[in-house]
Design a protein that fits this description.
CATH class: Alpha Beta
Oligomer: single chain
Number of domains: 1
Number of helices: 9
Order of helices and strands: EHEHEHEHEHEHHEEHEHEE
CATH architecture: Alpha-Beta Barrel
Helix content: 25-40%
CATH topology: TIM Barrel
Number of strands: 11
Length: 298
């Protein structure tokens, strides 16, 4: 058992919970809990490719947004409990199935175990890229601790407004904290690189979900992303918000309109951002690649 769970400050909430005898704000205890592990074909094309991404979905979340579409595992912590060695076995098993990478989805609550498992797996032959797939609410210390193991950073930047962050994610400091973490990720990863099949082998993709009624905040988000360097970061601009997932009291009661999404997309194009966007007809994770290019192949 990792001692960091005894007074947990692994994420910016710093809730201080003793997870050896209870649970933190994220809902996680001291045992690593994996909800699903499988080849995943619905990430960005440069992540999923033709053989899928080796996604490991961890249970629990330090954001628990009021409109979360994965609340069955982010709010209700359920799944298989694993040792560090068992988690390493899962990574190696996915690699053996031919996936392009290992995609760690919402791993922050289990950071010490994840780092230990990556060390074990790499010592035993894990050689494909590691993707760190996060809501963006990370400390700079956590990013630095992961840096020697992570090749591709895949964070969200959900809000520019502290008011919206407080309302929907109960994290008023999210905009400042997430931007600092993403800035560091971009600095550590450098410009995106791809293999011969177009799979990202190193770099940072920043996701942003456009929310209904908040296109001006989304425009500010893409401006902040662009400030990181349009040649150093890839934008994934999403429009799949669905009100069916809104929790009690959440006022996001409709889908995003094409006008709203296209207004944000237009700002991204004006700024010269590269990346992926979703078609006007899509309310799923189907991507149309490339506005302004997709980076350089090396």
């Amino acid at each position: 058992m990792h001692r960091e769970y005894e007074n947990c400050v692994l994420c910016p909430r710093g809730c201080g919970a003793d997870r050896t005898s209870g649970r933190g704000y994220c809902g996680a205890g001291a045992e690593t809990t994996v909800a699903r592990a499988m080849p995943h074909f619905w990430e960005e094309p440069c992540i999923s490719g033709s053989r899928g991404s080796g996604a490991i979905f961890f249970s629990g979340c330090n954001l628990r947004c009021s409109y979360c579409q994965n609340r069955d595992i982010s709010f209700a912590v359920r799944g298989e409990r694993m040792t560090d060695r068992g988690l390493a076995d899962v990574m190696l098993g996915l690699q053996a199935r031919g996936v392009h990478n290992i995609d760690l989805v919402t791993a922050t609550p289990y950071l010490p175990a994840v780092i230990a498992a990556l060390g074990i797996a790499k010592a035993r032959g894990l050689h494909i890229p590691v993707v760190y797939n996060t809501g963006g609410y990370e400390s700079e210390a956590a990013v630095r601790a992961l840096a020697q193991y992570v090749d591709v950073w895949l964070p969200d930047l959900k809000y520019a407004s502290p008011r919206l962050a407080a309302e929907y994610s109960r994290a008023e400091d999210y905009p400042e904290t997430a931007f600092a973490a993403i800035s560091l990720m971009t600095e550590l990863a450098g410009a995106p690189t791809y293999d011969a099949d177009g799979i990202m082998t190193r770099g940072t993709i920043v996701r942003h979900l456009v929310l209904p009624g908040h296109r001006d905040d989304s425009k500010e988000v893409v401006r902040r992303i662009a400030s990181l360097g349009t040649d150093r970061v890839v934008l994934s601009l999403m429009r799949q918000y669905t009100p069916e997932f809104a929790g009690e009291g959440c006022d996001l009661t409709r889908r995003v309109t094409s006008f709203e999404y296209n207004a944000v997309l237009g700002e991204a194009m004006r700024l010269g951002l590269r990346g992926y966007f979703q078609s006007a007809e899509s309310a799923t994770s189907a991507y149309t690649p490339d506005f302004g290019g997709t980076g350089t192949n090396e």
